[in-house]
Amino acid sequence: MTQKDMISAIDFINEYADDTTKLRFELDDLLYDISLKIFDYRMQNDLSQKELAKKLEVTQAMVSKLESGQYNPTVEQLWKISKRLNLNLVVSLQTKEDDKTEVWDTQEYKLGNIEENKKLMECS
């Protein structure tokens, strides 16, 4: 079996997970994006977590939780972070009709055809 024949984890979740699990993955993806932005900022500015915490007026433990995605900040907290780091905060709410793609439905995650992968898994 080649990598092309295997179903990606994202396709597997979209195909087999219940709606609650899919929503949890969607939220985790948003928290991951936030954590990466904060971590990238800290790395690009050569700051320790303690230094970034001072700049954000939070504890080092809070920076750690933000960077690990273990903390779900409020919009107000994100707004304050963006102001203190001189970043733009963009929030976008769209109708389902405006957003034609699934959260995970991007070419980079597709490794093969889902129907082909299901058949291969049944034969195993």
Automatic annotation (TrEMBL):
Alphabetized CDD domains for the sequence: HTH_XRE
Residues in HTH cro/C1-type domain copies: 41-92
Protein name, as recorded: Helix-turn-helix protein
GO MF terms held by the record: DNA binding; DNA-binding transcription factor activity
Domain of life: Bacteria
Classification via PROSITE patterns: HTH_CROC1
SMART domains: HTH_XRE (SM00530)
UniProt xrefs under InterPro entries: Cro/C1-type_HTH, Lambda_DNA-bd_dom_sf, TransReg_Diox_bact_type
GO CC, one annotated term: cytosol
Keyword Transferase annotated: no
Alphabetical UniProt keywords: DNA-binding
